[in-house]
Design a protein that fits this description.
It is a single chain. By secondary structure, the protein is of the alpha+beta class. Helix content is about 25%, strand content about 35%. It contains three helices and eleven strands; from the N terminus they run αβαβββββαβββββ. The strands form four sheets. It has a four-stranded antiparallel β-sheet with strand order 7-9-10-11, with helices on one face. Strand 4 and strand 5 form a beta hairpin. The chain is elongated.
């Protein structure tokens, strides 16, 4: 009888320690991810109006499928990517280019003026921001002090807003 008790004890002990390996990844509460986004991302849009984050109730980022949330910048929706870092941590970042139009115009003005050999005013539209998946093209108009206006194709290559520009073919 003692042998059976001892054997049962060995089997039970072996079963309780059989599970090895890393713990399963944590599924994050959407409200927690929203608070992180609201705390971290607005400062990346200095001077712009940023709305509250929105996430699903549960966020479960995976290697090949990041979690998705959103915020608004100047009233336009912007995708937020949620990437897992380890089993119980995550990082958040915008997943699109958010280009403040006034800053783009101010940056383009001296470059266009230098290339055109005279002073140009640059107008890229009435919106406060443009939001898109890079690379993308923004249409602007450069008006010189003398002569005809020139349409510009401004190609934004990445989320950071790096760009190149050239006159459009029909201008």
């Amino acid at each position: 009888m003692k042998a059976w008790v001892l054997l049962a004890l060995v089997v039970l002990t072996g079963c309780s320690t059989a599970r090895k390996g890393p713990p399963p990844p944590v599924v994050f509460a959407g409200a927690d991810v929203q608070r992180t986004i609201d705390a971290e991302l607005p400062r990346t849009f200095d001077g712009l109006r940023v709305g509250a984050a929105r996430c699903p109730d549960r966020v479960d980022p995976r290697q090949d499928e990041p979690g998705r949330c959103s915020i608004t910048v100047e009233g336009l929706p912007v995708r937020v990517r949620v990437d897992r870092e380890g089993t119980d941590r995550y990082k958040v970042a915008t997943d699109q280019a958010v280009i403040p139009v006034a800053r783009l115009e101010a940056s383009l003005q001296p470059a266009v003026s230098k290339e055109g050999g005279q002073s140009y005013a640059v107008d890229c539209g009435d919106e406060a921001v443009k939001v898109f998946d890079p690379p993308g093209t923004v249409r602007c108009v450069a008006t010189p002090a003398r002569g005809a206006a020139v349409s510009l194709a401004v190609t934004v290559s990445d989320k950071a807003g790096n760009y190149t520009f050239e006159p459009e073919k029909d201008s």
